[in-house]
Each structure stands twice: as C-alpha cells, then as structure tokens.
Amino acid sequence: MNALSHRLLLIEPPFYRLFDPDYSLCRFPLGLAYLAAAAGETGWEARAYNADFTGPGRPFSVRHLAGPGHRRYLDQLTDPQAAVWREVERVIAEQAPAVVGLSLKAANLASGRRVAAIVKRLSPKTLVLAGGPHPSAAPEQVLADPNFDLCVLGEGEQTLVELLRGLEKGDDLGAVPGVAARRGAGVVRSARRPLLADLDRLPNLGQWTARVLIDHERYPTRALGHVMATRGCPQLCTYCGSHQLWGRRPRFRSPERVTAELAQLRAAGVERIHFDDDTFGVTSDYLRRLCVALEINLPGLAFSCETHVRLIDQANLESMRRAGCQTIQLGLESGSDRILEQVRKGFTRAQALAACRLVKSHGLRLEVFLMAGFPQETEASLRQTVDLARALDCDKIIFSRFTPHPGTEAYRQCLNRGLVAPDQDFSLHHHQSPCNQYSPDIAPARFEELCSELAELADRRREVSLAEPGLT
User: Fold this and answer.
1) pTM for the whole thing?
2) Straight-line distance from the first to the last Cα atom of the chain, in angstroms, rounded to the nearest whole number
3) The pairing of beta strand 179-183 with beta strand 150-152
C-alpha cells in the first residue's frame, strides 16, 4: 500500500476503444460515480477514470464490431505496447492510488486483468478491488488472477466505505460484509450485505461529477447526463444478470431527490438526461409521480429511458411526454412468441408491436433491443426476429448476440447442455462477437447469415437516424 495516501482510483477498463481508435464510451459510468461520491464523503481523495473514453467518438457499427473490429480487439488485448495501455499506465502512475477499484463485466474481464497487472507492476502493495456484475456472480474466476485482491459483491457503496475504513485501521478486509477473498487455496465469501433500503441516502451526484472525474473538461455535457431513479428489477428475464447487483425487489428514490440531483446537473449545463434504470418507473404509480415532479420542477429538460412493454399505455406515455421524454427504449429481443415465453419477457409479439405503435403515435423516438441466438433458438424463430426488425417502425435497432453471463438462468442452462465450458474465455464473448453461437439447432453458417442480416438492418437504421436533423 502507498503509505496510506488516502487516494482511491476507480476505473472503467477499456473495451469499445479496443475495437476502433475512434470508438468511445462517451459517458461517465454511473456506478463509478456513486462509488466515488460515497468514498469521497469518508475523506478519501476519490477519482474516477473512464479508460474507455477517447472523446465524443463516432457511432458504433455492428458489422464492424463483429468483423474487423473483433480482430483488432483481440490484437489490442495482447499488445502491451498499444497506446491504450500506455495511457492507462500513465494515469495510474500520476494518481499513485493506495486503492484501485475496477468495474468488471464478462465482456471487459480480460481488459480488466491487464489493468490490474499494470497496477501491481507499478505498485505491488496497492490494493486492487474488483466490483460489478462479473465479480458479483463469479468471484472465483476473478480471484484466480493474483493481481486482484478482493471482490466486492453486489451493491458496492457501503462495502467500499467499510473497506477504506478497515484499511486505515489494519482490519481483516476479508471479513467486511459483501466481499470475497482468498483463503488458502480457495475463495471465501463474507457475510451477505443487505441491499440499501433507502436510496435517498445515496450521494447526490450533481455535487460530485466534476470533482471526481479525471479529464472532466474533455467530456461533452451529454456524457454527464445520466441518473438512476430506481434499483432492482422485478422482471425474470433468464439472460439478465442485473439482479446480481441490485436484486429483484424494486427500491425507489423519492421524486424530490431525483429532481434535486437533475437540477444540479442542469445548472452545470446538462440539458438531456438518460435514466439508466433497468426499467424506467417500474410501476405506473411511481412512473407518474416521478414524471409530475419532472414536469413541475424541470420544465424543458429532455430525457430518454428504457422501460418495459407492459408499462406502455396511453396514460403513462402522456405523463412521460409532458415530463420531457423524447426517446423510449424497449427490450423486445425476439420476434418469436415461443422464445419470448421461454426467456420470460412477460409479453407477446403482438403486445410488443402494439406498444411500439403507441410510442410512435405520441411522437416519441423509439429504439428497440433485439437479440439473436438463444439456446432454444431455431432457424424459424430467428427468421421471425429478422422479419420483426424489417417490420418495425422504429428509429434505432440495438442488436446483440445472446451471451450467457455467469449468475443467470440462461448461463446455467448453457452449462448443463454443454454449450458453455466451465473455463470459458470471456474475452472472446461479447454481444457482437462472431464466437457467440449457442443455438445448436441452427447450422453455424446459417446462423451467421441471419445475424449478418440483423446487423445490416441495425446499421442501416442507424445511418438513416443520424441523417435526420437534430439527432445524434
């Protein structure tokens, strides 16, 4: 440890920029923001570094991510002299942190390992923490790398604060609730930490964003316009691992607290907000109360969000539009009723199409998520998804290949069927990876043809959308 420098550096490892030098995660990762703010209130000097940010960047091409971009990504991962790793090393050396925390998902696990190795090479005594979805679901996989010291499991703010205080006192950090640590040849999880009951106790990010973000002046204001009003999603989608962090029981911030935070962001120049909630509103009652608060307290503020098909009705859309909603994202995923039922989306194709029509009838921008390659997928069901993509009246298609994430029901299904190896190399598997083929009932060549068709539709829709005035 660096003589108790009381410096904490939280890092989003590079990912998209490995695919193309002009690709960039042009946003301040909200999880790091909350962690940095919580740590900052303890007296530690907390900074957050988005190593996946290079500037405003350019829109992603799905075909590039699955093709030449994927090959470049693999080359960058294995090239220690690549410019991205030299930048990471420079930032870590300049900050000289006593503690580094990495936000890890399955897709950026390999990148995070390289960042952890850089940290330990620069300062072997620096404490390296791993948090986020992947460490929460599979801490044993993370701690197999000796460059990681501890995993933070689930919701991390209170755990991080206790780890920092325990470090000051010389306590056994492996005993802090909500962590996983090595014990001998194995990994032991400490007592489970209860989820935060009162989300209004979370720091107000409007007071912290500019203070903790490295290179803050390089970020466009839109990159700072992210907020969460809720945590916890009651949906039971088999492929989603969100519950590993937030649980399934919804918890709500008061509309007053949300609008107070947004008012501070607006004062800093942010005029467009994206709600990062898994499901905006979660319930119609809370959705409408939040929208009324936005309409009254922040007139003219524009926002976008992702929500559930079942929440799309006339009254909710009217309330959202009056509050400033301009874009709604819907996770449709499949055009097959059989697949929708088996992955437990909670709606039918007909209901999804009706929801899309209703959104567009209110003059709102519509973006939809579609996914190919579920283990239950057949050529016929995937063809239905392609047909749905062609028929949809939407402004953007966000296309992904199914990826089984540890801790999800879909991952267990794939493991049981031998579709996933226990030692799977997650660096090869991301949502546009050509290595993702988990549908044994579809011939690989045919699967590629249908995925390419969906990718082309998504890219074409994006190009048309970008050509429209006022859209980015």
Assistant:
1) 0.94
2) 44
3) antiparallel
